[in-house]
Write a structure and sequence with these properties.
241 residues, alpha/beta, 7 strands, globular
Length: 241
């Protein structure tokens, strides 16, 4: 019996890529699942292939939709926020509409969902919250307008929640993957170091969820390199720029 057996997890952003792989992995480990995304047809197809899963369509950019989804989901033991939007964008090619969409899905959407889930968890004195961030959230990187800053905000949010919920019985964790081979990363025209399959990334996320550890970054050593930038002087980081 796994630590997930019989527990109910609400995965927001479950229709493809990492979210779908997470649903499959958690289902194999005996979890009951509520799967949300905007594409109801795709969700239904996924649920048909899994045991103990139900589809609850949800648009995280719409608070009313989030509230309706949670009501339909019913009692949950854990939340996985995996909703994400991404477009590679350099500052010289600024697209305000695209940047706002990324911020709305990656960060503000999390605020909407957490605002509905956290009070119930705190009142019950239990619950698990897993936020899927990104290594891109640690530093300003080229062509990451909108995406990098929204993931940085999500990491900061997780850190604040970890402080505030330390004695509440509610577990908060942030998981920051590197590059995962999905529909979103197919937009990139540059080499992506240590590119992972969704299944590999999902296995690592589920492993992180089985522990009380707050922060999980992967894959190593790529994640170590990203964090190392913290210790480099600006004249090296921005050399020639």
């Amino acid at each position: 019996m796994s630590s997930f057996d019989g527990k109910t997890y609400w995965i927001v952003g479950a229709s493809e890529g990492l979210g779908r792989a997470l649903a499959e992995e958690l289902s194999r480990q005996g979890a009951h699942l509520v799967l949300s995304a905007r594409n109801s047809e795709r969700l239904t197809q996924i649920c048909d292939d899994l045991a103990n899963a139900k589809a609850v369509p949800c648009d995280v950019t719409d608070l009313e939709s989030v509230q309706k989804a949670l009501t339909e989901a019913g009692p949950i033991d854990g939340l996985v926020y995996n909703a994400g939007a991404y477009d590679p964008m350099r500052t010289t090619d600024w697209n305000t509409e695209s940047a706002l969409v990324m911020s709305d899905v990656n960060y503000l959407g999390a605020l909407r969902v957490l605002g509905e889930v956290v009070p119930g968890f705190v009142k019950a004195g239990r619950g698990e919250i897993t936020l899927i961030g990104s290594l891109a959230g640690y530093h300003g990187l080229p062509a990451a307008i909108g995406y990098g800053s929204s993931k940085a905000a999500l990491i900061s949010l997780a850190e604040t929640m970890r402080h505030d919920l330390a004695s509440s019985g509610v577990t908060v964790r942030i998981v920051n993957p590197g590059f995962i081979k999905t529909r979103l990363t197919e937009k990139n025209n540059f080499k992506m170091p240590m590119l992972m399959t969704p299944e590999d990334a999902a296995a690592r996320v589920v492993k992180a969820m089985s522990r009380r550890r707050f922060r999980t970054d992967f894959p190593a050593p790529f994640s170590w390199l990203i964090r190392l930038i913290d210790y480099l002087p600006d004249f090296l980081v921005y050399r020639g720029k």
